[in-house]
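Table 4 source record.
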Amino acid sequence: MTCGGDSLNVLLIGDFNARVGDEEGDVNNLAGIERNSKDNVRNANGYKLIELCNSFGLKLLNGTSRGDQNGEFTFVGGQGSSVIDYCFIGCEWNNHVVDFEVLNEPFSDHMPIVVSFNHSEVANVTTTNMELLPKIVWHSSNEHSYKANLDEALQNHEVANFNDLEEIIKQNFGSNIKRDIQVPPNFQEPILDSPITIQEVSSIVNGLKDGKAAGSDRIPAEFYKYGSNNLIQTLTGLINSVMENGVIPEQFKEALMFPIYKKGCAMNPANYRVLQNRLKMWISSKNLLSEFQAGFRSGYSTIDHIFVFKSIADLQEVKSCMSSSWILKQRSTRSTEMP
């Protein structure tokens, strides 16, 4: 069962031939949900199943619902009982689940599992599909002529906003955009609030990768990356205008998003890593991170921590052995001195 074309809006139910014990999974852990199970055994298939659950942000219902508080056995056979039948749901379906229970029926060694949904809420889920237009094709052979034409257009036309700039790049001139969202700054910080420089914009633009997807304007990165210096100057001016006026252009509110994540619920912002150059620079200037924080930091490595930890452990082991040897030697000396 799917909803809205989103692979996370699923109900996955059946016999998985896997035993996960009382493992909760990342989604349950993040939500602070304690899971119970009468089957405490975990096998290889169980580990793989939990890894799959974490990778796709699926929540395990067994042992977490009102109707299955104890985590009842789902398989009862002549050689024993176990939990191998499960129900997983995408995180967006969590609010629609009313209950989950394992029925005690004699007609099969696999007990039926029943999931109840609030049908009215599920029926009201709607989707909006945005037309994905093909991006403008970039030809590297046209780089020089593109720069020349771009310079001429920038000199002959006033660029008041990002929409104007996009139209110039696409060689279509015109329409203004509406700006109606005011974003006043919450605090003043020189590193964060000083005007954006041409060097900053140039560095970011030059770091853009070729051949990537375009946004709703259909302009891929190459048209900015291989543009002229005038383009970078114009782009810098527009960005600074946004900062000074505190007004967000309409284009900044639109995005074609195909989220890729490692594990957990895709609706949870904690599962996404956001690192911006200025934010990192500000954190560094304020010394907000300890020197012992090595994870996800450029120029740092957890290998150093592992080395220090191992060295301490080895030293502790040596000291322990030396102490044991000294005690044994003292006992041996005392025993030889006894009459």
